[in-house]
Specification:
The complex is a heterodimer of chains A (551) and B (295). With 551 residues, chain A is of the alpha+beta class. Chain A contains 16 helices and 29 strands. Chain B has eight helices and three strands; from the N terminus they run H-H-H-H-H-H-H-E-E-H-E. The structure holds zinc ion.
């Protein structure tokens, strides 16, 4: 027998064992390895036990997905709120509703969008005649609409070849369809017409029990969000684990428990929190009145806070008389047009008229388009600096190159991460965008020696200033000795002096004038420009070899 | 033997075992990963360990058949043990890792939430192992091979390990999330046990351990029946691959001729190969009895 052939057997088995061992380690740590259908399944069992009388209703009756503008934010803690309605409620009628299940157990196919009237401000902006189209208020995750590429803020002009003038029309048309049918949608997105083909599906199983549970939904009253690199940097978090609170509803269980905006929920009872969906399932799976112990990370400390789940109370806010429109004060920021939010805009967007903030009128160019801002978003704070008016907004955006924007969309608070120029929201570098004036070269060998990092203050946690000419300090880091020193750049202590004096081999900074950069690099200094973040971030980026020297 | 078919059946046992194990590794590996069950993945690794044992045995046979050469005048028989030691040290590490990871999952309350797919994998494994067990026991009894029956009981222990995995998966599904990793730990311990036994065996054989006492007894007894031998000085034996090698020193009458001596040697070899079921390499030296040493 061939010798090679003999060894093929054991080697392939050993290789297979190695692969299995790796997979073995992954199971249980990362929940999303396979199709996740477990949590909802558990929910279902749980719900049947908890609401025995509701089950029959669910099957015979109708479940509506409701997103009423008058509800305070934070309902149901998720992105969508599910509320069971009266049996007699006809499908697809009423404001802001999406119909999930049809009567008599014949399921209307599932589209997965939350629609409403086109907000006046949006209609005006896009020059859409009144009574044309319906506005997509939100999209259910992994729904057919999301898969087809429909986005929140789109305006549906045609549905199944018919011009759409009201949202009831969509419900009516849907009833004539079945799962598997493909429906064509013509959409106005930021003034451009696009068409999409949505393949309808039957209602996913997990939405039904979730809706049943929400007959009396367990409610915590905090908006939560997944953590990306920018949020992590802004809130100085050690890692991306858990979910961050973007809003705490007044008088909610969350507020009573002492949860605050910016808190990171790491554990719910004994369960480690991976993402918003899991957290939402856990909340929906608990019962109102039940106490859950949350492990919360706040300002470098880990706290344990007991939360007693409550029930959402729908409150109706009275809309006061609105005066004539003020003159809009306009501005621009990272590729979008913004105005001060007027009370009439607020009511058109379904927000309380007392809402103060900056309204996004138009998202025209990157980075805003890439980040995911949408027309109709209301910015209420940037990096925790409130932006009630244009003055505050200008102040908040003045010195920011990376920011976490607190905005209202529909009735939800969202933390929108604005990455520093040249970076994605996940913190990875976008090639060739950093500085058009300097050419990128691949780094060949890491240089040992002193690294200088320009800094706002003599502290490794201070931010790197946007411009090296405005940098008050340089932090000199010796990685070999794991030590650092700070040098003031005020008082005639010029950059080239310091570089020469301290034998600096690498410089990490924000923007740097081409001339200065050329001078330094001709003296053999490696320059890493366009970097945003803290000195600590820069050091870890440098050590991991992910910085690229410019020449 | 009840039926003629039993002989054919017995001959197929080895191949059925290899095929069955390969099939189970693939099913359990795939379903374990897709169904997110630590226990089932661990059990797939366990089956891999069993399969490797069989493969090593086959390789050992192939190598022993290779003729010896100038550099290795005694042949390549021992390579089998070196390979076995290396592979089982590797599997030992994997076994320890399985136990460790499983414990971590339990301590840190990772949510191990297997699907029903995984339960099917365990179920298949139980069924296949049980069928293989039945075949081996039946064939082994019919052809009167104790070693085959012993091997069969080994498949039975695989059935128990898969049952533990099945219980773990069902337990996890009922909300006891620690049960799947717990099953994985049990399987991990079984893997570690197999490895320790195999490594111990291989090391002993590398060190030229004497064959088991019962084999030496058998040799002694059969030699005593040969009348032309006046006494036994010593019997050294060791395992080389699948061979037994014996060095036997015998006392004979001092006045026999060389050709009579050769007849005695041939007789010894004949008798031994009739008593011992393995291939033998026998070297016989004939000595004349010295005065004072006998009786
Ligand atoms: Zn086994």
């Amino acid at each position: 027998m061939n010798k090679g052939l003999i060894w093929f057997g054991p080697i392939s088995v050993v290789a297979f064992v190695l692969i299995l061992a790796v997979m073995y380690g992954l199971v249980g740590n990362i929940g999303d390895l396979g199709p996740s259908g477990e949590q909802p399944e558990m929910n279902f069992v749980h719900n049947v036990q908890t609401f025995p009388s509701g089950v029959g209703d669910v099957q015979n009756g109708q479940i509506q997905l409701i997103n009423k503008p008058s509800f305070p934010t934070g309902i149901g803690n998720g992105q969508i709120q599910l509320i069971k309605q009266n049996n007699s409620f006809p499908a697809g009628i009423g404001n802001d509703q999406i119909q999930l299940i049809k009567q008599n157990q014949i399921q209307t196919p599932y589209l997965g969008i939350n629609i409403g009237e086109v907000p006046e401000a949006v209609a005006r902006e896009l020059k859409i005649p009144v009574g044309t189209g319906v506005y997509v208020k939100s999209i259910i995750t992994e729904s057919p609409s999301e898969k087809a590429g429909i986005k929140t803020g789109d305006i549906v002009l045609r549905f199944d070849h018919q011009p759409i003038t009201s949202h009831e029309q969509i419900g009516r048309t849907l009833k004539t369809k079945k799962a598997g049918d493909v429906v064509k949608l013509v959409i106005n997105r930021n003034g451009k017409k696009k068409s999409f083909h949505v393949k309808l599906e039957s209602v996913p199983a997990d939405i039904v029990p979730a809706a049943a549970a929400l007959k009396k939904p367990s409610w915590m009253g905090a908006d939560i969000q997944d953590i990306d690199a920018v949020i992590r940097m802004q809130f100085k978090l050690p890692n991306k684990d858990g979910v961050i609170i973007s809003y705490v509803t007044p008088n909610s269980p969350a507020e009573t428990a002492g949860l605050k905006v910016g808190d990171v929920i790491e554990r719910f009872g004994g369960t480690r929190i991976r993402d918003v969906k899991q957290m939402r399932d856990l909340i929906l799976g608990s019962q109102s009145g039940q106490q859950a112990m949350l492990t919360v990370f706040r300002n470098g400390e880990t706290l344990s806070l007991p939360v007693i789940m409550g029930q959402q109370v729908a409150t109706k806010e009275t809309i006061p008389f609105l005066g004539p429109a003020d003159m809009a004060i306009e501005g621009t920021w990272i590729g979008m047009d913004v105005t001060e939010l007027l009370p009439e805009d607020a009511s058109a967007l379904g927000l309380p008229p007392s809402t103060k903030g900056i309204l996004v009128n138009d998202v025209e160019s990157p980075p805003a388009t890439m980040i995911g801002f949408q027309t109709g978003d209301v910015i209420i704070a940037i990096n925790s600096i409130p932006t009630p008016d244009m003055k505050g907004f200008v102040k908040a955006t003045e010195k920011q190159s990376s920011a976490v924007v607190d905005l209202l969309r529909g009735n939800r608070h969202i933390f929108m991460s604005v990455p520093p120029p040249g970076y994605t929201q996940q913190g990875s570098k976008i090639n060739n965008v950093i500085d058009n004036k300097v050419k990128q070269v691949a780094v060949t060998t890491q240089v040992n020696g002193i690294i200088a990092i320009s800094s706002e203050s003599p502290d490794l946690n201070a931010a790197i200033p946007q411009d090296i000419n405005q940098s008050p300090y340089l932090i000199l880091v010796d990685l070999n000795k794991n030590s650092y020193a700070t040098v003031s750049m005020n008082g005639g202590n010029s950059l080239s002096n310091i570089v020469g004096q301290y034998n600096i081999t690498s410089l990490i900074c924000g923007n740097i004038p081409v001339q200065t950069a050329n001078n330094l690099s001709s003296n053999g200094v490696f320059i890493y420009s366009g970097i945003v973040g803290t000195a600590n971030d820069a050091i870890s980026l440098y050590e991991s070899g992910s910085l690229t020297a410019a020449r | 033997m009840k039926y003629a078919a039993c002989k054919k059946c017995a001959e197929s046992v080895g191949m059925v075992n290899i095929m069955g194990n390969i099939l189970m590794i693939l099913i359990k590996g795939y379903m374990g990963v897709v169904g997110r069950s630590k226990g089932l993945i661990a059990d797939a690794i366990h089956s891999s360990a069993d399969l490797l044992a069989t493969i090593i045995m086959i390789i050992g046979m192939k190598i022993s058949e290779n003729e010896s050469d100038e550099r290795y005048p005694y042949g390549y028989g021992k390579a089998e043990y070196i390979v076995a030691i290396l592979i089982y040290i590797f599997l030992f590490v994997i076994g320890v890792y399985i136990v460790y990871e499983g414990a971590i999952s339990i301590i840190y309350k990772h949510i191990v939430n297997p699907c029903l797919t995984a339960a099917w994998g365990a179920f298949f494994s139980i069924a296949i192992n049980e069928l293989m067990f039945r075949q081996s026991v039946c064939a082994g009894t019919q052809i009167n091979s104790p070693s085959m029956v012993a091997k069969a009981w080994e498949s039975r222990s695989d059935v128990y390990s898969s049952i533990a995995v099945l219980i773990g998966i069902l337990g996890s599904k009922m909300g006891f999330h620690f049960m799947d990793p717990l099953a994985a730990i049990i399987v991990g311990v079984i893997i570690i046990k197999i490895c320790i036994e195999m490594i111990k065996d291989s090391v002993l054989n590398l060190m030229d351990k004497a064959p088991d006492d019962e084999i030496l007894d058998m040799v002694n007894k059969s030699l005593e029946k040969i009348t032309s031998i006046s006494g036994i000085k010593n019997i050294f034996g060791r395992e080389v691959g699948r061979y037994y090698e014996f060095q036997i020193d015998l006392y004979v009458e001092p006045n026999i001729t060389v050709s009579q001596g050769e007849i005695i040697k041939r007789e010894v070899k004949q008798v031994l190969s009739n008593t011992i079921e393995r291939q033998l390499v026998i070297k016989v030296r004939l000595l004349t009895e010295k005065k004072g040493e006998s009786e």
